Automatic annotation (TrEMBL):
It holds the Pfam family DUF1232. The chain crosses the membrane at residues 36-53. This is YkvA family protein. The lineage of its organism: Bacteria, Bacillati, Bacillota, Bacilli, Bacillales. It is found in: Endomembrane system. The keyword Membrane applies. It comes from the Bacteria. It comes from Virgibacillus xinjiangensis. It is a multi-pass membrane protein. Keywords: Membrane, Transmembrane, Transmembrane helix. Residues 36-71 form the DUF1232 domain.
């Protein structure tokens, strides 16, 4: 339960997420397939022209974008090597 709480706090702190993503991508401990998969999913979501909730709906349009971004980040945290988890206290 505490681990889930720490991860949720981490996901909400965007300034800590960016260095984690950089370290995840540049780490030699992470399999290249995982790096390509996460990068492809992120780029694909940005480039695809449709959303679950259209962005022109004020406020609600960003909800699905935030949900997808936090889901991808949480999956990165789960698949990160222990050294990265320890470095960011996850």
């Amino acid at each position: 339960m505490w681990r889930l709480w720490r991860r949720m706090k981490f996901l909400l702190k965007f300034r800590k997420s960016v260095p984690f993503i950089k370290d995840f991508i540049l780490s030699g401990e992470v399999d290249k397939k995982k790096k390509i998969m996460f990068a492809g999913l992120a780029v694909g979501y940005v480039l695809l022209p449709f959303d679950l909730i259209p962005d022109f709906l004020l406020g609600l349009g960003l909800v699905d974008d935030i949900a997808v971004a936090s889901f991808l980040l949480q999956q990165m945290v789960k698949s990160a090597p222990i050294s990265l988890k320890d470095k960011y206290e996850l």
